Amino acid sequence: MSASELAAAVAQALDVDAEAFQTRAREEAELLKEEVRSGTFDNTEAIVGMELELYAVDDQTDALRRVPRQLLELVGFEKELGLHNAEMQTSPVPLNSHGLAAQRHELKSSLMPAQERLGTEGIRLVSDGMWTVPPTGETAREYLCDAVEEDGICIGTNMSDSVRYHTMANTDYPSAFELDAPHVSLRAESVMPEALITSIQPHYQIPHAPDLPEYFSYALRVAGPVLALGVNAPFFPPDLYDDAPDEEIVDDAHMENRIGVFESVLNPPEDDPTPPKVCFPPDFETVEDAIDDIVEDDTIVPMELQSGTRFDDGFVHLRHKHGSYWRWVRPVFEGATRSAANARIEFRPLPAQPTVDDAIAFEALFAGLMESLPKLEHPIQSQEWETAEDNFYAAVEDGLRADIEWITADGETTTATDEIYGELFELAREGLELHGLSTEEAHEYIRPLRERADRRLTPARWKHEYVRRRVEEKVPLAEAIWGMQSAYIRHQRETLLDGSFVDWLE
């Protein structure tokens, strides 16, 4: 799509009657509630799935690479925000030994031929929380901020030609479009700085849709400790740092900058009264409350939509609103057919992981916890919401070194890391065994994460220690970060499909 065609499509989207769109969404929400109450969104078993985002680099230099759209389609991946991004989704499967194995094999069977085909063009896909080496001949600031104006419409030069992405830069919603992190500052004209980050997103499908609030409350309370295990984005591209001593930048680094990037780019500035869209969500009393929260969330890009042939196209305006309902844990109501209609929890805080088996470990951990915690009526549900939120943002800053508060099965409050994770892993194991996995199988899926907790070493801490050592040796920060990135990609080349992060440590 040419810039002029894209600008025309954006201008057309901006002319949509927002009030009429919102009215339709509210009407659809009432229909959705009726369907939920009637059992349409219930399922006989728990279902799991996953989204995986990657970025592309030059196979020789590790510099960020744009992926030609035709080539991306050829390897069966979907486009994401940036021209360097690629995304895939696994097929939803029942939570059991065969289902988890199918998730693992699907990821590997898609990634292997994609890497081989892209490799003929000198491109490699990387699973990582944030890229740090900009395209050859460009700075990260230039790549993220480059934009043109076409007929009064701002078009991000390095963004995919999705009308929705570009319309977000031209609406009245006051997204800050800036980075706000220790020693980092950047202001853009579009959402493109969000293309710094990539994620994995495990999904867990609720058997009985009206029970979603109970499962959701547990998901919020495990969000902090689970994120602390997965942190993987401590450093930005070096040219984005302000003029500060290298040692100070390293000392002040957060272990998971992906959270802050998403929030500071898409939320309004702090002095704006508009409620933030990217945030730690509230508890819900009822499933209707969850639907209402989606309905009343600010719509950034209303569109004129027509119902198609899918069952959930009866809620097409509500589904469109959900696309910009950016909560770190969020409820989802979808289904291509009435029989496939489902209510699920999408767990969104996790950055992309070093290997496929690490990603699957998080899927197994989250699903196992969602099975066991409600069945056991675990007392962590009584934890104050504010404490769960504090745990979450503590994990963002310090990973496994964060002061996280947990309530044990005995009702005792603890901040002891070994006690917290010892219980979490056992609860996840029990949940997996409830769905037919053997004790040995359950342990094997969770093992990569148990090793992280035992060693107190996450991918982010591995990166941070590498850069810290080099800076202490008087290596310039940029060289240290790029050296770390090269080492990360080198290790991943050997283990992405047949190994885990802990193999890097042996």
From TrEMBL:
Classification via SUPFAM superfamilies: Glutamine synthetase/guanido kinase (SSF55931)
Gene3D superfamilies the record matches: 3.30.590.20
Coiled-coil intervals: none
Residues spanning the signal sequence: none
GO molecular function: ligase activity, forming carbon-nitrogen bonds
Domain of life: Archaea
Descriptive protein name: Glutamate--cysteine ligase
Source organism of the structure: Haloarcula limicola
Phylogenetic lineage: Archaea, Methanobacteriati, Methanobacteriota, Stenosarchaea group, Halobacteria
